Amino acid sequence: MSVPDDLRYTTDHEWVRREGDRFTIGITAFAQEALGDIVFVERPKIEDVVAGDVCGEIESTKSVSELYAPISGKVIVTNEQVTGNPGVVNADPYGDGWIAVIESEDVSGFDALLSPAQYEEIIAASAAG
Length: 129
Known about the structure:
Layout: E1 8-9, E2 14-19, E3 22-27, H1 29-35, E4 38-42, E5 48-49, E6 54-60, E7 64-68, E8 73-78, H2 81-84, H3 88-91, E9 100-103, H4 108-111, H5 116-128
Antiparallel strand pairs: 1-2, 2-3, 3-9, 4-6, 5-8, 6-7, 8-9
């Protein structure tokens, strides 16, 4: 299972990539694999979000899952490609399958997210569970 070491993670299986004061978010390979074939992505609205709040939804052939804002800030852009072709999240969760970009000057939220090693421990426990 791929856990890129240049990202931070949440216990809800979202990843975050920092580029200055912009944070690209998506779901992890573990999440997309657990969901199965993704058939619909409700992207976050272009608005302020608070870390931990629901900001979107991902529907698969197995279930519907909520997407949570991993950090507080303002959603400034969303990936239109995941609406027209939601399977891109399955095919490339860390690349073309990104979901949104949040702008935030408060990097403490990013620093508080899980490191790759911490996230690997969580998915190992889930797999063993």
